[in-house]
Amino acid sequence: MTSCSLLFGPVFVDGNLFLEFKHRIPLSRVDTIGISGELDVVSISFQGLNPSAYHIVQCFQPQLYSLPYQATIIGGFCPSKPIIVSGSVFPSAQRFHINLKAENDTAFHLNPRFDQNVIVRNSKLNMSWGSEERDLPFGMPLMRGQPFIIWIQCEEHCFKVAVNGQHQFDYKHRICNLLQINLLEVDGDVKLTNIQA
Fold this sequence. Notes:
Blueprint: E1 8-13, E2 16-22, E3 43-47, E4 54-58, E5 69-72, E6 82-89, E7 96-102, E8 105-113, E9 118-125, E10 128-129, E11 147-154, E12 158-163, E13 166-172, E14 183-188, E15 190-196
Antiparallel strand pairs: 1-2, 3-4, 5-14, 6-11, 6-15, 7-8, 7-14, 8-9, 9-10, 11-12, 12-13
């Protein structure tokens, strides 16, 4: 086997060295990149040893959404259906919210509060807020000035919420008819780049 010009390939995440992976084949044989999983690809860049040999393949232009944002959930929200909200938190953010609404009721209120370092979850039914849920088993997953992907998966008994690919908590349904949930709202101290509902 031909020796590699570099023994280890560094992997960076958000500009910081995450790990080094020892090459198992010569670099000259690497000619393809594959990406799969639950993510949105904004851009792919290839950089050779010569810094001038650098180019970017733009997969799609992120769309900017004006706030407050509202979108109809076609057919209502039902088990196995996800809602994905991507964007970035403003550096001086205090809070933002994602609401799943059923007419005048708020079936699910997701409210990251950076001034309190917590994500509040609640429902507003018949014009009254219920009891808040604040427990974060893994700590606050969102940071000021950082991008995020929030995945809300509807299951039979609860919403499962993941942030940046890691499951954070479940929220038990407080309304019976999930198909009544037909409106998504987002507002607050964020820039939205992608919504899938």
